[in-house]
Amino acid sequence: MLAGLSAMVIAVGALIRGPAIVRSWLERQGADAEEARARAAALREDAEERRLERRRTLLGWSSGGVETYTVALVTDPAEMDRAKAELARGGASGYVLLRVDERDSDVSRGRSLRMLIEEQHFLCRPPTAAEREALEAGFEALGVRDLRHASADMPPWY
After folding, report:
1. Domain identity same for 49 and 74
2. Of 21-30, 105-114, 146-155, where does mean pLDDT reach its minimum?
3. Are residues 31 and 77 in the same domain?
4. pLDDT on residue 39
5. Is the pLDDT confidence value at 61 over 70?
C-alpha cells in the first residue's frame, strides 16, 4: 500500500510539474536552435568575405580578369643592389623600377603610390572607359556617390 501511495505521489508531482519541465526544455531547444542559426549565418558571412577577398585579386573589372600584381617595396640597400644588377643585365627579373610620370604632382603621387604598395601589396591596371561607366551605373543604382573620383565635367550635385 505504501508503495502504491509513493507511486501515486510521484505521478501527481509529475502531472503538476510536467508542463513546466516540458516548456523549459522546449525553450532551451529553441534557444539552442537560434544560437546554431546565428553561428551558421556568421560562418556563411565569413565564407563570403573570404571568397570576395580571393576573387579581388583574381577577377575585377572585366570577366577576363584584371592584371593584378602582388608587390612589395624594396627598401633594403642589399636588395636594391641586387635589383640594380638584375635590371642592368637586361634579362628576366622579379624587380621593376617605377617612376610616377604625372605633370605637377610627381612627388606627392610617388608617396601615395609607395603608401598604396606598403598597405595593400597590390597594383592593378585601371578600368577601361566602359568598365568605369558600368561601375558608375552600379554606384548610382546602389545610391553610392563616389566623390573621390569625380571629374571636372560632372555636375556639382553628383
Report:
1. no
2. 146-155
3. no
4. 94
5. no
Short-list 59, 56, 61, CA closest to 131: 61
Distance CA 33, CA 145 (A): 40
Q: Is residue 155 part of a domain?
A: no
Read off the pLDDT of residues 80-115 as tens digits, 9 standing for 90 and up: 999 999 999 988 889 988 888 877 777 888 888 889
| Identity at 138, one-letter amino acid code | G
Whether residue 63 contacts residue 55, with contact meaning beta carbons closer than 8 Å, is answered with: no
Judge contact between 74 and 80, C-beta under 8 A: yes
Q: Residue range 111-133: average pLDDT?
A: 83
Beta strands in the chain (DSSP E): 68-70, 122-124
Q: Is residue 76 part of a domain?
A: yes
Domain range for 116: 68-149
Tell me: do 77 and 125 sit in the same domain.
yes
- Ranges of H-type helices in 1-94: 2-58, 77-89
Structural domain count of the chain? 2
Q: How confident is the model at residue 116 (pLDDT cuts 50, 70, 90)?
A: confident
Which of 145, 135, 125 lies closest to 154 in space, CA to CA? 145
Residues 80 and 39 in one domain: no
Instruction: Report the SS3 class of residue 8.
Output: helix
Shared domain for 89 and 144, answered yes or no, is yes
